[in-house]
Specification:
heterodimer; A: mainly beta; five-stranded antiparallel sheet; B: mainly beta; seven-stranded mixed sheet; four-stranded antiparallel sheet; about 55% strand
Chain lengths: ~110, ~120
C-alpha cells in the first residue's frame, strides 16, 4: 500500500523568494517518487524523479527535491521563485512491483506574487 | 518525445448520453491510465491497462468502462453520463522497460467534460 500527503493545498511566495512544497509518503516497498507540474488547462509533466540513485534530485526549471527516508519526505524546493512557476504541483509515489501505478497527492497550488 | 493525445479538449454532453473519450500514445507504452481530476481531490485513478485487452479497475470505476483493442489506444466510456461525472479527464501512459522503468507517467492535455 502507498499514499502521499502534500502539506498545504495553497502556497504563496513573492518573486525571488524560496519555494518549498512539502510531500510525505508512505510505501510498503522501496518507492520511486515524482514531482509533476500542471500549468492551467494542460496535462501534468514530470519535474523530477527519485529512483534511489541519489537522494538529492535535480529537475527542470531549477527545481530540486531531497529524499529523506528517515522522515519519509520528498520536499520540492527552488531557491528563487519566478512568475512562470505559478502552477499546480503534484507529488506521486510508485512502488517497484505494482505494474506502473502511481498514487498522487491532492496537489499544491503555487502562487507567485510580483 | 512521448506524445499522448486526447480526442477533445472540451466536451459538453447531456445526462444519459453515452460518451467516448479517446486517448492515443505514440511511444509503444504497455501501460495506460485514465484519471479524473477534481478541485481538492487530486488525481483519482478510474481504470488502467497494462496490455492490449487487459484492464484493471482503479479507485473509482463506477459508471465507467474502458476498451483497449490496440496498444496505442485506450478509450474511456461513460455508459450513461450523469452530472456528477462533470470533471477533467486525464489520460497517461508509461512503460516498465528501459530508461522509463521507474514508472514515470506521460500525460495528455486533458478533456474537460461538462454533463448538463
Amino acid at each position: 500500500a502507498q499514499s502521499v500527503t502534500q502539506l498545504g493545498s495553497h502556497v504563496s511566495v513573492s518573486e525571488g523568494a524560496l519555494v518549498l512544497l512539502r510531500c510525505n509518503y508512505s510505501s510498503s516497498v522501496p518507492p520511486y517518487l515524482f514531482w509533476y507540474v500542471q500549468y492551467p488547462n494542460q496535462g501534468l509533466q514530470l519535474l523530477l524523479k527519485y529512483t534511489s540513485a541519489a537522494t538529492l534530485v535535480k529537475g527542470i526549471n531549477g527545481f530540486e527535491a531531497e529524499f529523506k527516508k528517515s522522515e519519509t519526505s520528498f520536499h520540492l524546493t527552488k531557491p528563487s521563485a519566478h512568475m512562470s512557476d505559478a502552477a499546480e504541483y503534484f507529488c506521486a509515489v510508485s512502488g517497484r512491483t505494482n505494474a506502473g501505478k502511481s498514487t498522487f497527492g491532492d496537489g499544491t497550488t503555487l502562487t507567485v506574487k510580483p | 518525445d512521448v506524445k499522448v493525445t486526447q480526442s477533445s479538449r472540451y466536451l459538453v454532453k447531456r445526462t444519459g448520453e453515452k460518451v467516448f473519450l479517446e486517448c492515443v500514445q505514440d511511444m509503444d507504452h504497455e501501460n495506460m491510465f485514465w484519471y479524473r481530476q477534481d478541485p481538492g481531490l487530486g488525481l483519482r485513478l478510474i481504470y488502467f491497462s497494462y496490455d492490449v485487452k487487459m484492464k484493471e479497475k482503479g479507485d473509482i470505476p463506477e459508471g465507467y468502462s474502458v476498451s483497449r483493442e490496440k496498444k496505442e489506444r485506450f478509450s474511456l466510456i461513460l455508459e450513461s453520463a450523469s452530472t456528477n461525472q462533470t470533471s477533467m479527464y486525464l489520460c497517461a501512459s508509461s512503460s516498465p522497460h528501459g530508461d522509463r522503468l521507474y514508472n514515470e507517467q506521460f500525460f495528455g492535455p486533458g478533456t474537460r467534460l461538462t454533463v448538463l
